[in-house]
UniProtKB/TrEMBL annotation:
This is Glycerol-3-phosphate acyltransferase 4. PANTHER family: GLYCEROL-3-PHOSPHATE ACYLTRANSFERASE 4, PHOSPHOLIPID ACYLTRANSFERASE. It comes from Grus japonensis (Japanese crane). GO terms for biological process: phospholipid biosynthetic process. Pathway: Phospholipid metabolism; Lipid metabolism. The chain crosses the membrane at residues 316-339, 452-470, 476-497. GO terms for cellular component: membrane. Residues 132-240 form the CBM21 domain. Coiled coil: none annotated.
Length: 752
């Protein structure tokens, strides 16, 4: 029979779908019905031959049942349908059920009048907001209900207010002259929320009759000494007895009382609502869904508003267009529209206004403001050990100042130096963030934020929203774009043969990607004396404040990097970059071999066609207030050195990386949530090693030039003191200076 075959092909393993289609199963038992139409065309059908008709009879005179397609007898078929493996999709099921609807009126006309149960109320969970409101106020609410083969089953949601709970269904079949209480069973659900529990019930209904009064039931929830009821706002939940002349199980009752076919979208949403709390459904069926938390489940069931989707798509398109026009394209060609400079000037005016408000508020409250000591709390003069000791002897002794003898007053010099070091250590304070004299609406680097007025508090809150909700996502997107283009571009360029074309493309790919990364930090860079930029075959040395120093310099020049090979994302970037550019990467075991490192660097600088090497001789990050000792390794090669001074403006954001306090991810997050990175870069004239200089003297001369140009303090201390103790050689150096002042002349005379 064609109808039975179609129903079997469309059935799902999901029990709710079988329940909604159960009325079709009854038709299969009715063998006495005639087919809807003949399988053969009437004009081509013929009476079978007598001998063939007789041969189909058995020995007892009964006919054997046989099914023969018309084309096997040379006749034409009424219709031809091709069946393939069913793609079990809900949309396909809806269309298939819609096609079956046309058969329903013909079958209904020929079947006897039968009475059935039908729910006389909408499913409570369809209107999720009302359902949650009822659950919150009544502490109990019916979630879903279903009738199948005179069996009423459903689920109940209760608030998890106590551990001991008892949920029952009270039902009557005679208008509350008598009733029964049915206990509900607790349902374990891995997706359930912590504030609600789910119970299920199942009970048998008597044989329906039109003359019988309507069946009603309600839900009771006993918790502690109290009993809470869900009686559908006093109307109870009613089950009607209706005949088959009313639309049976192939229709679903909606919230407003109308009956809808399964082919509609609203009915499909109701079908899915049955699936979320079904206990015995097979998880392999395509229409089964777990009991997700309420809001998330309803979000999945509700259709998207096309207007909202369109507006969202337009917004994303406009955003990416603005990024392309105002950021990525200018980065490719190295131009700027001046937007960042206007942004910087606006911030400066806001900072000045905030500083005036703080000072006025502190003056009114008579609170002294903290003023950072830029040059230290102790006034120091650049004098030597010998000069200071002579000054002490001049004021406290009548002996000749050049007498090579020990005097007790010399102790005062060492005592004063020790106390000064304790009070104002000129080395330790170089490894902490620089304190600002005025507030920049960031609570990271200013001690005066406790004197903020209400207006400043509102302004600070607005700044937090701008930095974290607008600037941070934009900067992350730009950083991802720059890094992705760098890895992709250098990898593609790396497959090209060596030559001018590869060098040209590699240079512009590096410059483009670094400029995009600079814009990801909202960096405003001013380059001075660009005619002194490093050239091939040289070494570029600069003071070191942050890992972004590389991006700052590489966005204006093409350099060969020197460093250790890393793993993870950094390793991926390094391996991609070395394919397009001759960078110098060392293995971890090779870094400690000074001779091997010097050999690799020498081979690189001797080839005048190779790019200049970018090196930071300090070996660690300093807070951009001073320049510490340069390692002599890069000055022993004998190549031309191109000094570069980098000075950051801490008003807009602190660029110093305190690696002992923050990891790389935290540091980058702090950079991307700052207002901007503002810095100045000076290209100094190239310097070469003099014949009478050794590597240490040459390094100190270059360091002094960088400190003088950038307005930084020139220190002789090693930046390695950031993590290590003071070496004994430093102590011995001071001892040698003092001993030379006392016994140095005597030693010279004895030798002569």
């Amino acid at each position: 029979m064609p109808v039975d075959l179609a129903v079997q092909l469309c059935l799902s393993h999901s029990p709710p779908i079988r329940k909604l289609l159960n009325s079709y199963e009854e038709l299969r038992g009715n063998r006495g019905r005639k087919p809807l139409r003949s399988c053969l065309n009437q004009k081509l059908s013929a009476e079978p031959e007598p001998e063939r008709r007789d041969s189909t009879k058995s020995s007892k005179g009964q006919k054997k049942k046989r099914v023969v397609f018309a084309d096997m007898k040379g006749l034409s078929l009424t219709a031809v349908r091709f069946f393939s493996k069913i793609e079990e999709d809900l949309c396909d099921l809806q269309h298939a059920l819609s096609d079956l609807a046309c058969f329903r009126p013909r079958l209904r006309d020929s079947r006897p009048e039968v009475c059935r149960y039908v729910l006389d109320f909408p499913q409570p969970s369809v209107d999720y907001m009302t359902f949650r409101s009822r659950l919150h106020s009544n502490l109990v609410c019916l979630e879903n209900c279903l009738i199948q083969d005179r069996t009423l089953s459903g689920t109940v949601k209760v608030r998890n207010i106590e551990y001991e709970k008892k949920v029952m269904v009270r039902i009557t079949f005679d208008g509350w002259k008598s009733f029964r209480d049915i206990s509900c069973q607790y349902m374990h659900s891995m997706y359930g929320s912590a504030d609600t529990d789910t119970f299920s019930f199942e009970l048998a209904l008597p044989k329906p009759s039109v003359s019988r009064r309507a069946t009603e039931f309600c839900i009771s929830f006993q918790c502690g000494q109290k009993t809470h009821w869900d009686n559908n706002h006093g109307r109870n939940y009613k089950i009607c007895h209706v005949g088959m002349t009313r639309p049976p199980s192939h229709a679903v009752k909606s919230a407003n009382g109308a009956w809808e076919h399964l082919g509609t979208s609203r009915a499909a949403a109701l079908v899915l609502s049955h699936l979320q709390t079904w206990r015995r459904s097979e998880t392999q069926a395509p229409y089964w869904a777990p009991a997700l938390p309420g809001p998330f489940t309803m979000f999945l069931l509700l259709p998207f508003d096309s207007l909202v989707v369109n507006l969202l798509g337009i917004s994303i398109t406009v955003l990416f267009t603005l990024l392309l026009v105002f950021i990525i394209v200018p980065a490719i060609f190295g131009v700027s529209f001046g937007i960042r400079k206007v942004y910087m000037k606006t911030l400066l005016k806001i900072f000045q206004w905030a500083t005036l408000r703080i000072e006025r508020g502190a003056k009114e409250k008579n609170h002294p403001l903290y003023k950072p000591y830029v040059n230290g709390i102790i006034a120091k003069e650049p004098t030597s050990l010998e000069e200071e000791i002579k000054e002490i002897r001049r004021s406290g002794s009548g002996k000749a100042l050049d007498t090579p003898e020990f005097e007790l007053s010399d102790i005062f010099y060492f005592c004063r130096k020790g106390i000064e070091t304790i009070m104002d250590d000129e080395v330790t304070k170089r490894f902490s963030a620089e304190e600002l004299e005025s507030w920049n609406l960031l609570s990271r680097t200013n001690y005066n934020f406790q004197y903020i007025s209400l207006r400043l508090t509102v302004l600070w809150g607005l700044g937090v929203l701008i930095r974290y909700c607008f600037l941070l996502p934009l900067r992350i997107a730009l950083a991802f774009t720059g890094i992705s283009l760098l890895v992709t571009g250098t990898t593609v360029v790396g497959y090209l043969p060596n030559g001018r074309c590869k060098e040209f493309l590699s240079k512009h790919v590096h410059l483009m990607c670094y400029r995009i990364c600079v814009r990801a930090l909202t960096a405003i860079i001013t380059y001075h004396d660009r005619e002194n930029r490093p050239r091939n075959g040289g070494i570029c040395v600069a003071n070191h404040t942050s890992p972004i120093d590389v991006i700052i310099l590489a966005s204006d020049g093409y350099y060969a990097m020197v460093g250790q090979i890393h793993g993870g994302l950094m390793g991926v970037i390094q391996r991609a970059m070395v394919k397009a550019c001759p960078h110098v990467w060392f293995e971890r075991s090779e870094v400690k071999d000074r001779h091997l490192v010097a050999k690799r660097l020498t081979e690189h600088v001797q080839d005048k066609s190779k790019l200049p090497i970018l090196i930071f001789p300090e070996g660690t990050c300093i807070n951009n207030t001073s320049v510490m000792m340069f390692k002599k390794g890069s000055f022993e090669i004998g190549a031309t050195v191109y000094p570069v001074a980098i000075k950051y403006d801490p008003q807009f954001g602190d660029a110093f990386w305190n690696s002992s306090k923050y990891g790389m991810v935290t540091y980058l997050l702090r950079m991307m949530t700052s207002w901007a990175i503002v810095c100045s870069v000076w290209y100094l004239p190239p310097m070469t090693r003099q014949p009478e200089e050794d590597a240490v003297q040459f390094a100190n001369r270059v360091k002094s030039a960088i400190a003088r140009q950038g307005g930084l303090v020139d220190l002789l201390w090693d930046g390695g003191l950031k993590r290590e103790k003071v070496k004994d050689t430093f102590k011995e150096e001071q001892q040698k200076l003092y001993s030379k002042m006392i016994v140095g002349n005597h030693e010279d005379r004895s030798r002569s």
